[in-house]
Amino acid sequence: MAKKLKIYFICGAGLGSSLACQMTAEDVLNQHGLDESMEHEAISSTPGLRTDIIVSAENFKPQFEKFDLDPAIKFVFLHNIVDPNEIETKLLPVIHELENK
């Protein structure tokens, strides 16, 4: 059995929008038979995270660029964090890429 990927959903406070995005992503991944490890967190916690993928809103991209993060972390930036279609088209290819490594 393959190791579960660790996916963090990041927003400003780590409460509202990151949780909403995580819940939508859980539905999308379940529809595709994927069972990954998912958490949500505040952007201020990002430098200490050990994760495979970070999912966040596009407006946070400049803040991530200020952090010295592991270059192996894959980023998925969303225009609409609760749009299942956008999550499917942007997150699933990254998951499949990492699973096939």
Automatic annotation (TrEMBL):
One function term, GO molecular function aspect: protein-N(PI)-phosphohistidine-sugar phosphotransferase activity
Taxonomic superkingdom: Bacteria
Record keywords, A-Z: Transferase
Keyword check for Transferase: yes
Keyword Lyase: no
Record domain Phosphotransferase system EIIB component type 2/3: where: 6-89
Matching InterPro entries: PTS_EIIB-like_sf, PTS_EIIB_2/3
Pfam family, one: PTS_IIB
Gene Ontology biological-process annotations: phosphoenolpyruvate-dependent sugar phosphotransferase system
Protein name: Phosphotransferase system, galactitol-specific IIB component [Lactobacillus paracasei ATCC 334]
Species this chain originates from: Lactiplantibacillus mudanjiangensis
